[in-house]
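[Q] Does anyone have a clean structure-token version of this?
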Amino acid sequence: MRRSRSETAETRERIVSIASNKFLKEGLAAVGMRDVMSAAGLTQGGFYRHFESKEQLIAEANGKAFDRLFAMFESKVVGKSPAEALEKIVSLYLGQPQSKENTYLCPLSMLGAELSHCDPQVRAVATAGYQRLVQLIAEHLMHLTRAKRVALASGVVSTMAGAVMLANITEDKAAARSILDNARALVRARLSQGGRVS
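[A] Here you go.
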């Protein structure tokens, strides 16, 4: 029996969602298409009915992860002043445990090194996600010139993503917490100096 278009779309969405979580928590190289399809309750042979390649799935899965992350940020900063919004975004990005229970993981910090070896479509999604993060920070620094907003926001995003990546590398929980705390202090100080945020 042929599946309806809505059923096919729902299946595809389920595969992307499962892949997004598995890639973020286990890594791109560690997760095969068999793992994703099995977790979705499907056979590996059905993969190519939905996707042309693993790279296409990675790109869509990371796009979904960014959408999920930004929706969470937007919901948490509604009604806040620019200073409060920045503090909340920084705290959420650096303060959440990078554990399997966290559903708002960022592809930049969780998959950064692996993304650099991916094909152009995957890297384009990662670059777009980075630019969205920069814009999110910059839009709360409206009293600065556009060039200064973007430069400061770029430094903040790079610091946060790098800190989470490094914190995930270490097995020492105290060291990981120190990395995140130091990054938070550095970002707050920089925002305070350049963006008049305390």
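[Q] Thanks! Anything notable?
[A] The radius of gyration is 18 Å.
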